[in-house]
Amino acid sequence: MKRTLIFALAALLAAASAFAADGKPVSYKSGDETVQGVLYAPTGKGPFPALVVVHEYWGLNDWVKEQASRLADQGYVSLAVDLYRGKV
Q1: What span, in angstroms and rounded, lies between the C-alpha atoms of 23 and 65?
Q2: Do 41 and 51 touch, CB atoms closer than 8 A?
Q3: How far apart are CA 85 and CA 19, in angstroms?
């Protein structure tokens, strides 16, 4: 039973990672500054609808990037902005 559960969990993790979109670091102008973000895009030929993903109080952490990646897996171009300039 335990062995079956481990194999099922491993298969689930492998399937989830197979669909995760890769993020591409991007820079863009915000007033007089150049700021950073991570852009996630679905595979295939667009055009695609787009979303801006704004992080919470904790900054642009891995959880926020994962959510932006999931949105790309669902067909949206998503830009995860970094409002705290790299501080988490």
Answers
A1: 8
A2: no
A3: 29
**Cα–Cα distance, 38 to 51 (Å, whole number):** 12
* 10: number of Cβ within 10 Å: 10
pLDDT tens sequence across 20-61: 689 999 999 988 999 999 999 999 998 999 999 999 999 999
Strand partners, 25: 38
pTM: 0.73
Q: How would you class 33 by CB atoms within 10 Å of its CB: exposed for 0-12, middle for 13-18, buried for 19 or more?
A: exposed
Residues 23 and 71 sit within 8 Å (Cβ to Cβ): no
Tokens of 88: 């988490």
Do the strands 77-81 and 50-53 form a parallel or antiparallel pair, or are they unpaired? parallel
pLDDT > 70? residue 15: no
